[in-house]
Amino acid sequence: MDSAVPLVMLGPGEEGTIVECQGGHGFVSRLAAMGFTPGSRIAVLSNYGRGPLLVRVHGSRVALGRGEAAKILVRPEVGPNA
What we know:
Number of helices: 2
CATH class: Mainly Beta
Distance between the termini: 19 Å
Shape: globular
CATH topology: SH3 type barrels
Strand content: 35-45%
Largest sheet: 6 strands, antiparallel
Strand order of the largest sheet: 1-6-2-3-4-5
CATH superfamily: Ferrous iron transport protein A (FeoA)
Radius of gyration: 12 Å
Helix content: 10-25%
Number of strands: 6
């Protein structure tokens, strides 16, 4: 799992696979209800370095605060488009 990075580190257009969601039970449960579960594919739509991130997970667009995004660990996609 050493290749996992916080979601907040991915730039616009980058994709990855969720490895783990960290935090308290309530926070992790809320993320799971929105589709942020280990193994799910996620794409960053916007990340301007401050303010919220806009991501796509399971076909839905979701805005996350930077603190929330820092607690979601992802394995970035490695390939010709990455």
